[in-house]
Amino acid sequence: MSEGSRGYPATGGWVAFVVAAALLVMVVVSLAWGDVRRNGGNLVYALDDTYIHMAVARNLAEHGTWGTDPHEFAPATSSLVWPLLLAGVFALAGPANGAPLGLALASALGLLAASRWALRRAEIPPHLQVAGLLLLVVATPMPTLVLTGMEHLLHAALTVVLAGIAATRLTSGPDPGPGWLAASGWDLGGIAALAVATRYEALFLAGLIVLALGWQRRWRQALATVAGSIAPVIVFGIVSSTHGGLFLPSSLLLKSATASSLHAFSPGPVLAGWYTRLAYTPELLVLLLLALLLAGHAIGDGRRREVALCMLFAGTLGTHTLLASVGWLFRYEAYLVCLGVLAVLPLAARRVGEGLAGDPRPARRWLAAASASLILLPLGVRATQALTRAVPATNNVYCQHLQMARFVREYLGGRTVALNDIGAVSYLTDAKVVDLSGLADVEVAMARLSGSYDATWLASHALARGVDVAMVYAGALGPVTPPGWRRVGAWRLEHNVVCGDDTVLFYAVRPGSDAALRAALAEFGPTLPAGVRHRLD
Question: HSE on the CB side for 62, CA within 13 Å?
């Protein structure tokens, strides 16, 4: 149907976009202002991972190296597109601290435009389009994710477009539509390639689309989607392998929710983790149950495209929660929340409208209002938590990661330091960094994946890499301190909402360095911002 079908004005969707975009920009400006005011006049991102992207992008722009070290390749990030976009900005304007924020805001506006397109395709009235886009702004949650300066909103926008085109294709006749791209399936393949290159989780949706196209014997379109989906994986795998890295990004292997269980062939922990992740995100569980219920009722109503979209969402959600993580400042499941709202809203609006029109009794209206409240409650809780944690998360990063970078820059010079979270130190200093989490250190990643990572192995690795000082989380080393490491001091972060641990321990690793490290910590400690407690051992 055309933009103005069903009697709705063609401008209605754009009015909804403008209203939602205005809300988004106002909230982002408010959060960014609070961020700068709370963090000593600095724009600070809500996750240390952002600084990993910035370090990779700067090294790519200035040295042609993919990694956090300007002279060493490292598969430190699972997003391929985001560092490339940042590197493009850095190549044109230099390393700009606001670049991730600007790209994330542009991605959020792109997500709103894609969502507006999806709602118009579903032919719902303009006032519900406004409500739907406003709900997406706060529940995704776009402002908080803009403050992370990462790729999740771009991934969500590409997911919406990919799922929307696939739902139309799967429910159309033999003729997929005008144009060579649609006939060959390379529209799906191209978008799938961009989505996977943005975040590898896009493989879940792309895989379902391939299976559905294969079931319908649309082999050419299925093959195009397969080719587009796996192209970024293969290209990066070849580049990484030739540079001594793993075929998949280390972050993908190490952060996978079920990597250890799958390695040990243990289905029990995998299923237990799936249940735990659904319980941890009740908003996803509600959207999943609603999508299945509404799709079941709408199968015979001629709403085949909406049913297909619900099923694509349900399958993607099930696969993601089985194999990948949720949480960590609402980012990993953000694309699922967005896709779920867009899948459920058209069928829910139609079902409620038809029910009320057929039975205008007050009790029925109250029941509809109560059902809507029950559905919106977990999304409202998510939105509230995201807004209230955004600025405190930036303050956590400022008080912990940026202070560690300042300490390294002012007191440790060109020494080699070992860390759990390497982003801020890698981007803001010239120190040689050893990544104890394994994202930027292939040897650590392989040791963790093989199960050989322990205190003895770590001590040997640190010695081989020439580590002088280790700054590690209290819970990262386990019960046994690596042989030869001497604990000198600690920083404790109050009111932690986002950091991996609230306490950072400082160890002298190189023999004879204890006194110098103790003196540096004693001098630096009083300059730490409020909210950080420091002590010497």
Answer: 16
